[in-house]
């Protein structure tokens, strides 16, 4: 897509008319007079998600306990149904995906199975700028193995604003048993060069885990090529599954023979689950890592949302995301630099995710002023405003209007 951007107000209107994804904008609920740029945190509700949730509610109202037998046991196998829709987004087999729990609980589920420390190979490699909850889980798992995080958790220290892949690779010593990294960093939108990292980790026999929460639904991922062992993600950001919607877990099929470290009745084989045998007989696919009964109302909106993704195509979503965020960065460079704003993410397409990090010394106060003007963004310490034009429902005109509101706030000093 052409990136010879222009500053005038007619230009974004033209881009909106030419936008191949423009028809999806009307499938999402947006508050009149509001510019929503926080889809990296909680995505907006769609008509499709509302329908799939209401469909479930109607079945429950009419069927009660018979809901489990409804439509050839659709809701018993709900995770598998969602996995079919999810698989194209990360290029893996549907039976390698389970929709269950939360992102953090799924780290526990995966590590309880795959983290098997020995005297010589026991360390977990992490970094110091990932989302903190991932680290909490890692430290907890290390303690459960009677190890001290101060010894067994090896931390790659970021030097500057962005993580250098060589720092991670050079930290892969022979005592590292497992690594857990984000695909996209939540503050800076940096996309790691995963292929190089994973090739080295596989060469050294290191179990590879990825948190793809800020990547899935906005980046065209191929986990199969990376040959990782597991991945976790939440579904309420770019996937628009609703606040607190059930998370995802990818378990490489090469591990299906392993007994899940955290066992529960819903991970038992379908055919004998209701025999309630006292010995766990797990499903030989990702569903074996389910623990309890599926949280249907936390899963149902995701069905409608994923159907939109499959209709739109992740390639098309990524193309627009890169283009509309490039337009936003252009407007920052041309209109806002003189007021102390700068872009805090990398500029190369392959190195940035779906959000733009806008830096300003007064970012927190400016964020509050934006809120009072009907613009929804968020703030991260110490000086970052995270702003996300979502490919499926943000218009180019809204991006232009956002920058104009920022200009007015700075000129009138209303922050």
UniProtKB/TrEMBL annotation:
<dbReference type="InterPro" id="IPR015422">
    <property type="entry name" value="PyrdxlP-dep_Trfase_small"/>
</dbReference>
<comment type="subunit">
    <text>Homodimer.</text>
</comment>
<protein>
    <recommendedName>
        <fullName>Kynureninase</fullName>
        <ecNumber>3.7.1.3</ecNumber>
    </recommendedName>
</protein>
<keyword id="KW-0663">Pyridoxal phosphate</keyword>
<keyword id="KW-0662">Pyridine nucleotide biosynthesis</keyword>
<feature type="binding site">
    <location>
        <position position="104"/>
    </location>
    <ligand>
        <name>pyridoxal 5'-phosphate</name>
    </ligand>
</feature>
<feature type="binding site">
    <location>
        <position position="214"/>
    </location>
    <ligand>
        <name>pyridoxal 5'-phosphate</name>
    </ligand>
</feature>
<dbReference type="InterPro" id="IPR015424">
    <property type="entry name" value="PyrdxlP-dep_Trfase"/>
</dbReference>
<comment type="similarity">
    <text>Belongs to the kynureninase family.</text>
</comment>
<feature type="binding site">
    <location>
        <position position="265"/>
    </location>
    <ligand>
        <name>pyridoxal 5'-phosphate</name>
    </ligand>
</feature>
<dbReference type="Pfam" id="PF22580">
    <property type="entry name" value="KYNU_C"/>
</dbReference>
<dbReference type="GO" id="GO:0030170">
    <property type="term" value="F:pyridoxal phosphate binding"/>
</dbReference>
<dbReference type="GO" id="GO:0019805">
    <property type="term" value="P:quinolinate biosynthetic process"/>
</dbReference>
<dbReference type="InterPro" id="IPR015421">
    <property type="entry name" value="PyrdxlP-dep_Trfase_major"/>
</dbReference>
<dbReference type="GO" id="GO:0043420">
    <property type="term" value="P:anthranilate metabolic process"/>
</dbReference>
<comment type="pathway">
    <text>Cofactor biosynthesis; NAD(+) biosynthesis; quinolinate from L-kynurenine: step 2/3.</text>
</comment>
<comment type="function">
    <text>Catalyzes the cleavage of L-kynurenine (L-Kyn) and L-3-hydroxykynurenine (L-3OHKyn) into anthranilic acid (AA) and 3-hydroxyanthranilic acid (3-OHAA), respectively.</text>
</comment>
<keyword id="KW-0963">Cytoplasm</keyword>
<feature type="binding site">
    <location>
        <position position="236"/>
    </location>
    <ligand>
        <name>pyridoxal 5'-phosphate</name>
    </ligand>
</feature>
<keyword id="KW-0378">Hydrolase</keyword>
<dbReference type="GO" id="GO:0097053">
    <property type="term" value="P:L-kynurenine catabolic process"/>
</dbReference>
<dbReference type="GO" id="GO:0030429">
    <property type="term" value="F:kynureninase activity"/>
</dbReference>
<dbReference type="GO" id="GO:0019441">
    <property type="term" value="P:L-tryptophan catabolic process to kynurenine"/>
</dbReference>
<dbReference type="InterPro" id="IPR010111">
    <property type="entry name" value="Kynureninase"/>
</dbReference>
<feature type="modified residue" description="N6-(pyridoxal phosphate)lysine">
    <location>
        <position position="237"/>
    </location>
</feature>
<dbReference type="GO" id="GO:0034354">
    <property type="term" value="P:'de novo' NAD+ biosynthetic process from L-tryptophan"/>
</dbReference>
<feature type="binding site">
    <location>
        <position position="211"/>
    </location>
    <ligand>
        <name>pyridoxal 5'-phosphate</name>
    </ligand>
</feature>
<dbReference type="GO" id="GO:0005737">
    <property type="term" value="C:cytoplasm"/>
</dbReference>
<feature type="binding site">
    <location>
        <position position="293"/>
    </location>
    <ligand>
        <name>pyridoxal 5'-phosphate</name>
    </ligand>
</feature>
<comment type="pathway">
    <text>Amino-acid degradation; L-kynurenine degradation; L-alanine and anthranilate from L-kynurenine: step 1/1.</text>
</comment>
């Amino acid at each position: 897509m052409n990136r010879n951007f222009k500053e005038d107000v007619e230009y974004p209107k033209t881009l909106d008319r030419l936008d191949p994804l423009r028809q999806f904008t009307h499938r999402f609920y947006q508050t009149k007079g509001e510019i929503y740029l926080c889809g990296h945190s909680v995505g907006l509700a769609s008509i499709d998600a509302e329908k799939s949730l209401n469909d479930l509610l109607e079945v429950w109202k009419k069927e009660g306990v018979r809901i489990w037998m409804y439509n050839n046991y659709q809701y018993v196998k709900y995770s598998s149904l969602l996995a079919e829709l999810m698989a194209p987004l990360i290029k893996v087999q549907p039976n390698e995906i389970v929709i269950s729990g939360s992102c953090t609980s799924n780290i526990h589920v995966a590590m309880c199975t795959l983290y098997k420390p020995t005297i010589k190979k026991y360390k977990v490699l992490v970094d110091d700028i990932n989302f903190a909850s991932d680290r909490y889980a890692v430290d907890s798992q290390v303690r459960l193995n009677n190890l001290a995080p101060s010894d067994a958790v090896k931390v790659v220290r970021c030097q500057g604003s962005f993580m250098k892949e060589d720092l991670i690779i050079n930290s892969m010593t022979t005592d590292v048993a497992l690594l857990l990294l984000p695909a996209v960093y939540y503050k800076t939108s940096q996309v790691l060069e995963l292929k190089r990292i994973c090739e080295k980790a596989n060469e050294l026999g290191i179990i590879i885990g990825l948190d793809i929460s800020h990547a899935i639904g906005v980046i065209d991922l191929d986990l199969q090529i990376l040959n990782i062992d597991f991945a976790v993600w939440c579904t309420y950001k770019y996937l628009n599954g609703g606040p607190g919607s059930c998370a995802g877990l990818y378990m490489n099929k090469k591990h299906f023979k392993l007994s899940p470290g955290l066992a529960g009745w819903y991970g038992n084989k379908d055919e004998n689950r209701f025999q309630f045998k006292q010995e766990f007989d797990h499903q030989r696919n990702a569903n074996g890592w389910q623990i309890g009964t599926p949280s249907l109302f936390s899963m149902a909106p995701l069905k409608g949302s994923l159907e939109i993704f499959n209709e739109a195509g992740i390639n098309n979503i990524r193309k627009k995301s890169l283009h509309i965020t490039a337009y936003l960065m252009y407007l920052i460079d041309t209109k806002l630099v003189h007021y102390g704003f700068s872009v805090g993410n990398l500029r190369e397409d392959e190195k940035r995710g779906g959000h733009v990090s806008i830096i300003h010394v007064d970012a927190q106060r400016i964020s509050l002023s934006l809120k009072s003007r009907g613009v929804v963004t968020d703030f991260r310490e110490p000086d970052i405003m995270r702003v996300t034009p979502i490919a499926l429902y943000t218009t180019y005109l809204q991006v232009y209007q956002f920058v104009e509101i920022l200009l007015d706030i700075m000129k009138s000093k209303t922050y």
